[in-house]
Amino acid sequence: MTQPPIAFIGAGNMASALFGGLVKQGYPVDRILAADPNEACLAAATELGVKTATHNHAAVEFAEVLVLAVKPQLLHSVLEPLKPLLARRRPLVISIAAGIDLTTLARWCGDALPIVRCMPNTAALVQAGATGMFANEQASDQHKQHAQSILEAVGSAIWVDDEQQIDAVTAVSGSGPAYFFLVMEAMEEAGVKLGLSQQVAEQLTLQTALGAAQMALESEFHASELRRRVTSPGGTTERALNTFEQGGLKDLFGQAMEDCAARARELARELGDE
């Protein structure tokens, strides 16, 4: 596959993770540009040898693939002055701005551009991200391949069948790291209450989380089967799991994730009214 010029509008943490991942995979640095009015945000790009600019017009002029990596609340004001140039250049537009749907993106970008909407998560910062993607009708198979290769530079990238499923992606993986951080926090606090030092409780918790995730990734079995295999009848693990079940843990997770998806839909409506 060809290596088209890629430009990022916004050079914050997520953008830096993406172009950093591309460089690690061998993408030519002279075919990547990061644009941000805040020169301090361009430090990571400069260190990697990536081209930089402080004006967004330079990014559009450079790009065959344009990654929108600014805060959702700022995206409309960023895109409005770029409309004529976007219509002339017609890049593939990849948006990682949460809550902005394809209809709104098409209206803000102007013209019928190929657009891919993505929902990455913060684990992309350590090249272990999970991203859901959906493309509009103008995006060709090659456009989709380009988008997937960019997002796979920082983890896994998965296409969903319907744009509405992006809200479910938000509930599962977009916000998901925070759920696990909360579980880790609770386990550490419980470990301290049981007599461990803070350092020991933290180290055991983090390594256990890493090990469980690694086992699930590498195993041929579903998580439910892995749980069954480490739960001896009448043993300590069973006692703990029974307590979780009696407390309605699965129902609570389900409700929390439904609320997350609902908030994603609300944000889409709020931001799309601009």
Question: How much of the sequence is in beta strands?
Answer: 5-15%
The CATH architecture name of the largest domain reads: 3-Layer(aba) Sandwich
User: How many separate domains make up the residues?
Assistant: 2
Instruction: Kindly report the average pLDDT value.
Output: 95
The number of distinct β-strands equals 8
Task: Give me the side-by-side strand order of the main sheet.
Answer: 3-2-1-4-5-6-7-8
Can you tell me the CATH class of the largest domain? Alpha Beta
User: Sheet with the most strands?
Assistant: 8 strands, mixed
N-to-C terminal Cα separation, in Å? 37 Å
Radius of gyration: 21 Å
CATH fold naming of the largest domain: Rossmann fold
What does this protein structure show overall?
- The protein is α/β, with parallel strands linked by helices and 274 residues long.
- It folds into 2 domains: 6-169, Rossmann fold; 176-266, ProC C-terminal domain-like (ProC C-terminal domain-like fold, Orthogonal Bundle).
- Helix content is 55%, strand content 13%.
- It has 13 helices and 8 strands.
- The protein has helices at 13-24, 43-48, 56-62, 72-79, 83-89, 102-109, 141-151, 165-174, 176-193, 198-218, 223-229, 236-246, 249-272; strands spanning 6-9, 32-35, 51-53, 65-68, 92-95, 115-119, 129-135, 155-159.
- It has an 8-stranded mixed β-sheet, sandwiched between helices.
- Strand 1, helix 1 (13-24) and strand 2 (32-35) form a beta-alpha-beta unit.
- The longest helix has 24 residues, at 249-272.
- It is elongated and about 70 Å long.
